[in-house]
Specification:
This protein is an all-alpha fold. Helices cover 61% and strands 0% of the residues. It has 2 helices and no strands. The radius of gyration is 22 Å and the shape is elongated. The N and C termini lie far apart (64 Å).
């Protein structure tokens, strides 16, 4: 079996970057949809007041 040498080019770099970007975007959208559904069902309740209590000004 011959080992094919892959020469790094800008086309390859942009292709890999776009593939990584689209996969990350898709994962983020799926997680966001799941969290929205859970939030609407009342499963996820985030205590925003205690989350930002460390900020000055009484957030």
């Amino acid at each position: 079996m011959d080992i094919t040498e892959v020469k790094p080019t800008w086309r390859l770099a942009w292709g890999l970057w776009w593939r990584g970007f689209l996969i990350s975007l898709g994962i983020g959208v799926v997680i966001g949809i799941i969290l929205c559904i859970l939030f609407w069902l009342g499963v996820v309740c985030i205590p925003w007041g205690s989350l930002f209590a460390w900020l000055p000004g009484g957030w």
